[in-house]
Structures are given as structure tokens and as C-alpha cells.
Amino acid sequence: MTPDDLVEDLLGIAPGSPLAELRRRRPEARAHAQGAYRELLMPEDPGNVSHAERAALALRVALREDDRALAARFRALLEAAGADEAIMLAEDLSDGIMEGRLPALLRYAEMVAAKPASVGQDTIDALGAMGLTPRDIVAVTQLVSFVPYQVRLIAGLRAMQGESAA
Amino acid sequence: MSRFTMEEVGWTPRIPPVEAGTATPAQLAALEACPPAQRRSTYFLTLAQDPASLGERGALFNSVMYAPRGLPRADREFSTAVVSMANGCVYCTSVHARRFAELSKQREAMQRVLDEGHAVETDPRRRAIADFSEKLTLTPGAVTAADLAPLRAVGMDDLEVLDLIHSVAMFANANRLMQSLGETEKQAAS
Questions:
Q1: What's the mean pLDDT when you consider all of chain B?
Q2: In this complex, is the C-beta atom of B182 within 8 Å of any C-beta atom belonging to chain A?
Q3: Which DSSP category does A59 fall into?
Q4: Under DSSP, is residue B89 helix (H, G, I), strand (E, B) or coil?
Q5: Would you place residue A99 in the very low, low, confident or very high pLDDT band (cuts 50, 70, 90)?
Q6: Closest to B14 (Cβ–Cβ): which among A36, A121, A158?
């Protein structure tokens, strides 16, 4: 079953605990972070970028940002879909240039996550030439820009957990 | 001379924005979830190409930057300006530095940070906010409870700390979107 809140599930923030209660003082931020995760990873209408491709892009960004717990969640989505090749490609951090659509999307994910200033008009036009519509391009860019949000939210909340444990 | 400024900076999208006159009902509904002052901007009209993500992400942004109580708005703007500098987003830096200056009336202090970096910040609260914001931005995996101690020392409570974390995280997102989906207009030489 999909947990009600990915971040609280991942960090083991129990219902009724002080940190859970604190997050409920910002109910919109809590609900819409989960909503963005849902709409970016498993939208009802994914356009030309499949759920498996989306999970692979999220997995790559989480690995590059070195958040292994979050990466494991995205990997689990791919495992459940039987997308073994996508897992292999997403977890290949060797920087080798591979042919094909998913490797090209993964390279775009890396650029946006690690060096967004290096994206140019030619980068975006290349996505269009692969058959991505403006909507697909925005969706992919939103997705690979949202994982860094999750990484920092999780890191910040983990530090707060450390405070109360001290 | 730093490349950061609080003057207005231009931004040109790399894909066509949605036209307000021909937007679909789903696109219009998603724009309604975004901050009222910005929902007709070129940037949000570009994001409206994918209404499903914009509806959630716009509402998230609205809450992070404008939810009442907790961290004062000026502090959220200051934090997001520092994050945007760390991420090299000249456009976002200009917008949020300007908003901080308007809200706080501390224009000179902001200008000094833009010119010389936040290490020159002498106000203890702003310095603590800036240090934490930069660390969570650049090395999130290295952040521990010890990094929250300077925030507690300047009197921040749990809700303020949560709001600060949200602000920093939001601009990990916003800076990447802004730099990827469009071109920031170069500053005229002055």
C-alpha cells in the first residue's frame, strides 16, 4: 500500500509524534509535496513519458544527490513494474554515453539536477526532437527539479529528529 | 563585481508559454493555485504546459512562501535569495533579494550580500539563516542537528525552523526550473 506521506514514512515519523504534529501545522506544504510527488511520478495521464521512465529519472537524481533512502523508494517503483532495464540504466553512474531514449532523458536529468546553468536552447530542442511535447518537457523538468526539494526536506527533518534525540 | 543584482532581470522561456486566451480549463485551474501576483507571469504560463504538476507545485510554493505565522516573510525571502545565489540563479536571486529589501527596508544589507557574499553579514539572525540555507542547499547529506543550533541560538522555534527548511527546499526546485526552462537576460553593462 502507498503510504499517506512518503517523507514521514521514509523518516519513520510516527503519527502523533512531535514532528508529525509540527508538520500538520503546515498542512498545505505537507499535502502538496505529496501531491506533487504523485502527479510527477504516477500521473493519471503521463503523456509521452511513462511511469517507469519517470521513476528512473527520479532514481538517478536521488542517487546523484546521494540520498540512498529516497533512491530506494524510486527503485521499488521500478521493481514493482518489472522495469529491470530502467533500473540498470538509472543506476549506471559511469558517465558513458549510451544510445537511446532513456539514457538521453537521464543525461537531461543530471544536467538539471547538478548543473542547471548548462542547459541551453539546444538541450531543450533535442528533447523536442525525441518526440517530447512542451507538456512532456515541463513535466520531466518539474520531476527532476522536485527530487532536490524532497532531498532537502528529508535532510532538514532528519536534523530536527537528531535534535530531539540529543 | 558580482553578477548578482536586485534590479529587474529578464527571463525568456525555451518552450512556448501557454497563452492566457487559449488556456484549457485544467491549465487555468492550475494557475489559480499559484501566488496571485505571479500567476500571469511568463514563467508560470510556461509551467502551465503541464497543469497536473503546476497545480500541486504552485500550491506548495504558495504555502511555503506565504503561509501565515512562523518564519517572517522577510526571512523566507532572505533565505531564498541566499539559496538562489548558491545555485547560481541570477533571476531568482534578483526577485527575492528585491522582495527582502522591500519587506525589511534593509536594502543596503542585501546589496552587500549580493556583492560580497553572506560571509559579510553581521546581523546574527540573518547570518544564521544564510549559513544554514547554504549548507542545506549545497550539502544536504551533511546537515545534522548541530547545524540547527545557531538557528535556535537566535531564538527560532520549531515552526520557524520547519518554514526555513521548506524555503530552502523550494528553491532547490525553483532555481533548477528557472535555469532549465528559460534564458536569463544578461545584465546591461553598467
A1: 94
A2: no
A3: H
A4: coil
A5: confident
A6: A121
Identify the domain boundary among B66, B101, B125. B66
Distance from CA of A59 to the nearest CA of B (A): 16
Show which of residues 86-115 on chain A sit within 8 Å of chain B, judged by CB atoms: 111-113
pTM across the whole model: 0.96
How much is the pLDDT for A1? 44
**ipTM, interface predicted TM-score of the complex:** 0.96
Query: Are residues B127 and B43 located together in one domain of the fold?
Result: no
**Of the candidates B62, B143, B169, which has its C-beta nearest A149's C-beta?**
B169
Q: Do B96 and B57 share a structural domain?
A: no
Q: Is the pLDDT of residue B190 over 80?
A: no
- The verdict on B104 and B37 lying in the same domain is no
Q: Does one domain contain both B43 and B96?
A: no
Grid cell for residue B83? 539559496
* A23 pLDDT above the threshold of 50: yes
Among partner residues A23, A116, A151, which is closest to B179 by beta-carbon distance? A116
How far is the C-alpha of A127 from the C-alpha of A131, rounded, in Å? 7
The answer to whether residues B48 and B84 belong to one domain is no
Reduced to 3 states (helix: H, G, I; strand: E, B; else coil), residue A120 is coil
Instruction: Residue A142: list chain B partners with CB under 8 A.
Output: 47, 50, 53-54, 57, 177
3-state helix, strand, coil in chain A (%, to 5): 70, 0, 30
| B21-64 residue pLDDT tens | 889 999 999 998 888 888 888 999 999 999 999 999 999 999 99
Of the three residues B66, B92, B124, the one that is the final residue of a domain is B66
Alpha-carbon torsion (B8, A36, A6, A78), positive or negative: negative
Verify that B89 and B137 share a domain, yes or no: yes
Cβ contact, residue pair B62, A28, below 8 Å = yes
**In terms of residue numbers, what domain contains A102?**
6-165
Q: Given a cut of 70, is residue B166 above it in pLDDT?
A: yes
Domain that holds residue B54: 20-66
